[in-house]
Amino acid sequence: MAVPAFAAPLAAGFADPVHDAQRSFAAVMRAMAEPGLAVPLASDLDPPAPLSREAAACALALLDYETPVFLDAALSAAPAVAAFLRFHTGAPVVDDPAAARFALIADGAALPDFGAFAQGEPDYPDRSATLIVQVQELGAGALVLAGPGIKGHRGFSAAPLPADLPARLAANRALYPLGIDLILTAQGPDGLGAVMGLPRSVKPVMED
Amino acid sequence: MNAPATAPASSMPAITYNFAYLDEQTKRMIRRAILKAIAIPGYQVPFASREMPMPYGWGTGGVQVTAAILGADDVLKVIDQGSDDTTNAVAIRTFFETTAGVATTTRTQDATIIQTRHRIPEAELKAGQTIVFQVPIPEPLRFLEPRETETRRLHGLADYGLMQVKLYEDIARHGHIATTYAYPVKVEDRYVMDPSPIPKFDNPKMNDSPALQLFGAGREKRIYAIPPYTQVVSLDFEDHPFKVQAFKEPCALCGATGVYLDEVILDDKGGRMFVCSDTDHCATRQAEGHTGTMSAPYAAQPGPLTPSPSPARGEGGNPTGIPSPLVGEGGSRPSRETGEGFATGESGEAR
Ligand SMILES: [Zn+2]
C-alpha cells in the first residue's frame, strides 16, 4: 500500500465497487466461456498510462492480496501503475513471472513466453497464471479456433500480438490440462471496450 | 441499486448485507475459481467455501456460485427437483430477492441464471443463460477411493479404470448399469465428472448445451464448470450403451412425452398420477392448451395447474412401494435424496 510521496494523486477505482466489479467479471466470464468472442466491456476507469481502462477493470475485478501480479516492462516503467494496483487491489507486485497468479501485459506485441509463467500442476492445474493482455483491436477474423465454448469453429483477430500466436496457443494446448489462460482487452471509444478469452482449452485450427 | 439490501425489520433485526450477501473478497475468490473451472472443463477447482445462513444440505455451494456471478440486471430462477415451489427453492429465491433485490421468475426462458437441485429444465437452455447446480458430492471417484490425494492423482493421470470397473460390476450384478442418478460423465474426453444428483435422463442435455453450466459444492469446497458447446459423454460400454430412462405414459396434466415424470400421490387410497417434474414446463404446456388424462376434473379451475408439492415430491423415494413409472430399470427408483437433501422434519413445506 506504500504510495511514493512524490506520486501524483491516485486515480480513482470503481465508482460503484460492487456492481462495476460484477459487470467486469460477468464480461470476463462470458469471454472465457466463449473463447475468441469479443465481449463488450464498459469501463469508466481512468488508470495511469499505459494501463488501459479495460485491463484495469479486469484487474480491479479479479485481483486482491491473494493474487501476486506480474507487470510487463511497459507497465513496470510507469511506477504509478503499480501504485494504482496496490492501492485498489492490495495485490503484491512480483518481479518473478513464475510467482504470479496474474500478469498484466501492456505491450501485446512483446507478449512474454508463456513458459515463464506458472502452468499448474497435474493434480492442481488451476494453480496457473492468467495473462491479461492489452491489444488495440479485437474482433472476428482469420485466426480460427475450436474447443469448449465454441460451436464448430470461431475466427478471431487481435492486434498487435506476436505472429506466432497460433503456434504458442497450440503449444499451450498441448500441455492441457496444464497451461496458462489469456484475457485479451481492447480499448474502445467512449469507454466501450471489449474483452476476449483464450483459455488453455482452445485449439487453434491451423491452415494447410 | 448501489445501496445494500436491507432485511425487512419485521422479520429479523435490521441487518444490512452486501449485495447478494457475500463480501467482495469472497466473491473475487469464487470468481477466480469459476474462471479456472471454465478453462479446464470438468476439473474440480478447490475454493474457500464460506458459511452461509442456511444448512449445507440446502445447496450452499450453488448459492455461493450464484451470489458471485449475480448482477443487478439478472433474472433468477430457482428449482428443486424441477419445481419452483418447494421449501428449498422458495428459500433460496427469497434469499436472493432479499439480499440482492434481483428479479426472479419461474419461467425457464425468461431467466438469465437458473439455480437448480436435481434437474435440468425440459425447455432447451439458450446461449447467454447460466445454470448453477447444487452439488453434494463433487468427486465421482469418492466412493471408490476415499483419499483426496489419491482421487486428485487419478484425475491428474486420467486414470479412470476404477470407474469403469464399478460400472461393469453393476452390469454383472443387475444386467445393466444400475446407476440412475449422478451418472458419471466424461467432459471433452478428459475429466470424469459428477453431474450432481440429476436423473441420468438429464445427462444428454449437458452435452453441447448453448448455456454455461456451473457446479458448486459447499461442504466439499469445489467448483467446476462446463462451458457452452462442450462435449459431455455419459460413461458406458460398447455392449451396454448408455440409455436414458423412459416412461410408460405421458404427463397426466399436459400430455407431454419425452420428459421426466414424478409420481404424485392424490389421496390415501393409492390414487396417484405421473406428472412433469418440471412444473414450469407443465404449466407452460397447459397454458398452450395441452391436456392429459387427469386434466378434465380440473378444467373448471382458472389458470394452469401445477401439481402441488405432496410428501412424495421433494421428500424422495417411493415409500408406497407402488411400481415405478420407469421402464427398463428393473423397477428400481432410488431415493433422490442422495446426500444434499432437506433437513429432516421439513415436511409440511410450501405453505
Ligand atoms: Zn406436464
CATH architecture of the largest domain in chain B: 3-Layer(aba) Sandwich
User: Quick one: CATH superfamily of the largest domain in chain B?
Assistant: Bacterial phosphonate metabolism protein PhnH
Give the name of the CATH superfamily of chain A.
Answer: Bacterial phosphonate metabolism protein PhnH
CATH architecture of chain A: 3-Layer(aba) Sandwich
**Percentage of β-strand residues of chain A:** 25-35%
Number of helices of chain B: 7
Please state the CA-atom Rg of chain B, rounded to the nearest Å.
20 Å
Distance between the termini of chain B: 31 Å
Determine the mean pLDDT of chain B.
83
Strand order of the largest sheet of chain A: 1-11-10-7-4-2-3
Radius of gyration of chain A (Å)? 16 Å
How many strands, what sense, and barrel or not for the largest sheet of chain A?
A: 7 strands, mixed
Q: Which structural class should the secondary elements of chain B be placed in?
A: alpha/beta
**What is the total number of structural domains of chain A?**
1
What does this structure look like?
The complex is a heterodimer of chains A (208) and B (351). Chain A is α/β, with parallel strands linked by helices. Chain A has a single domain, classed as Rossmann fold. Helices cover 25% and strands 28% of the residues of chain A. Chain A contains 5 helices and 12 strands. In chain A, the strands form 3 sheets. Chain A has a 7-stranded mixed β-sheet with strand order 1-11-10-7-4-2-3. In chain A, a hairpin with a 7-residue loop joins strand 8 and strand 9. Chain A starts with 16 loop residues before the first helix and ends with a strand. The mean pLDDT of chain A is 94. In chain B, helix 1 packs across helix 2. Chain B contains 7 helices and 14 strands. Chain B is globular and about 55 Å long. The N terminus and C terminus of chain B are likely disordered. Chain B has 351 residues and is α/β, with parallel strands linked by helices. In chain B, the strands form 4 sheets. Chain B has a 7-stranded mixed β-sheet with strand order 1-9-8-5-4-2-3. Chain B has 2 domains: 211 residues, 3-Layer(aba) Sandwich (Rossmann fold), CATH 3.40.50; 67 residues, no CATH class. The longest helix of chain B has 16 residues. The interface between A and B is large, with 41 and 47 residues. Bound molecules: zinc ion. The site of zinc ion has 8 residues of chain B, from strand 13 and helix 7.
